[in-house]
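Forum > Structural Biology > Help requests

Title: Can anyone predict the 3D structure of SDR family oxidoreductase?

Hi all, first post here. I have the sequence for SDR family oxidoreductase but no way to get a structure on my laptop. I'd be grateful if someone could post the structure tokens.
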Amino acid sequence: MELFSLKDKVSVVTGALGLIGKKHCEALADAGSSVIVADIDEEKAIAFAASLGREHTGVYLDVTNEASIQDLKNVIIERYDRLDVLVNNAAINDMFENPALAREHSAFENYPLSAFQKSIDVNITGVFLCSQILGQIMVEQESGSIINIASTYGIVGPDQNIYKDEFGEQIFYKSAAYPVTKGAVISFTRFLAAYWGHKGIRVNTLSPGGVSNNQDDFFIQNYAAKTLLGRMATSSDYQGALVFLASDASQYMTGANLVVDGGWTAI
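Reply #1:
Sure, ran it for you. Structure tokens for SDR family oxidoreductase below:
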């Protein structure tokens, strides 16, 4: 089990207060790492880090802002003087404030360019900037593991039928933004793994499936029916995979996409 130990390691999780972000932080902390909980909500990030223990730190982070990421880099150097694991988890997904208009607004023909651009800024540019700026610490120490969180929708196209209710009514459409940006994350992983491999830095993708989060019953049933395990994921289902990629247990693994989706993409 020493292979999975992160004792004396330092980890950063971006978007750390999200649905699976907190579970990422808990998993890394349980494996022995000091965790920097980075999120745009500074107050909650500090409180959550404190709940993990004294050796953990909560910080403000806007992944689209270079100065914000540079500030985080300074915190890492001043407090820990090293960085072993970077989890690029921050991302946005479509949310429609008015359910009555969700189908109309999410249809590709009507999808606003501003929403598409915002997804690019956070889901792609944010991963690029965090890797570029924070990865410099890893380059200097010639070691590290970068884990980019993608999605099954970065691998396969969305099945729009799962967004139909029990009466066959299309409630909304999965837009192009999330699949396009998550596909780009997988490609970026391969680029960075090839670019920094000689520096001892491993770069891998973790592609999770859908997580149960109080969705409508029809959606949960539709989604579960497409998985080989017959269920959606829980928010804890990715903790083992994350620690594996962060630790020496995966020391000969780089440029890979670890798919943990209950069999969604297997057939």
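Residues 113-141 form the longest helix (29 residues). The domain at 2-260 is CATH 3.40.50.720 (Rossmann fold).
Shout if anything looks off.
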